[in-house]
Amino acid sequence: MAEKEGMCCDSEEIHEELLKIVNDTMPEETELYDLAELFKVFGDSTRIRILFVLFEAEVCVCDLAQALNMTQSAISHQLKILKQNKLVNSRREGKSVFYSLADDHVRTIIAQGREHIEE
Amino acid sequence: MAEKEGMCCDSEEIHEELLKIVNDTMPEETELYDLAELFKVFGDSTRIRILFVLFEAEVCVCDLAQALNMTQSAISHQLKILKQNKLVNSRREGKSVFYSLADDHVRTIIAQGREHIEE
DNA sequence: CAAACATATGAACAAATGCTCATATGTAAA
DNA sequence: TTTACATATGAGCATTTGTTCATATGTTTG
Hints:
The structure is a homodimer of 119-residue chains. Chain A is mainly alpha-helical and 119 residues long. Chain A has a domain at 43-118: Winged helix-like DNA-binding domain superfamily/Winged helix DNA-binding domain (Arc Repressor Mutant, subunit A), CATH 1.10.10. Helices cover 62% and strands 12% of the residues of chain A. Chain A contains six helices and three strands, in the order H-H-H-E-H-H-E-E-H. In chain A, strands 1-3-2 form a three-stranded antiparallel beta sheet. In chain A, a hairpin with a 2-residue loop joins strand 2 (88-93) and strand 3 (96-101). The longest helix of chain A has 14 residues, at 29-42. The model of chain A is unreliable at 1-5 (pLDDT under 50). At the A-B interface, helix 1, helix 2, helix 3, strand 1 and helix 4 of A face helix 1, helix 2, helix 3, strand 1 and helix 4 of B. Chain A binds a DNA duplex (30 and 30 nucleotides) through helix 5.
């Protein structure tokens, strides 16, 4: 067999097999990107805190800002990201907009995360 | 009752109740930070791809680099982050270092993420 | 309609992030 | 010990990200 560029670890069979398995089981490029994008949303403590508030109740923007002691603008920007990624829903009631959790995956994902860091 | 600074939405009782609930159920500052830190790790498609390879087998660094068509250095940097957050373990065998999944929370978290984006 | 309130949004800026490049460390073979 | 291979790591750089500030949009009330 001709030498292959980039071979390493002195193994040859394992590479082929590994590459085959990876090709078979690795999700599509776009799914990988979407997955990373989703977790990026959970990767900010402000958004995590917003979600913890929404675990308890449906809350309007200014209440969120007050509960988390942050600017209305900062909260609003983050809510937009949460909504774009379908983690929250919004409902207008008069001048206020109330936000709530979109589905239970959010709870599950965060619960698993907590389990992990508690070891 | 004296007017409170920062009141909003023309409600008063709800605020107090909300703030109480939030104080009771919101995790500690450090846990929130750690949680966000953990999800940040999942929030990069390179690291996600590494994890998908490790779902299938214990793999050494250069094989990972080859399978994902990336630099050894880039992979090594990301593996360090994965290891710091206890998502992977490593084991030295001669010149090579083999990486493997640390525990099943990783699988669960990613599985939940996939479910979410598939709606 | 105008004024007040609640929310959304664009620009700007500082901080964090991921890759590359060069090089250091660690291990095995000659 | 020297050489070669596998991995780790620090510095530098371009990109992304979260907040602030100013302002726009949307809604209710006077």
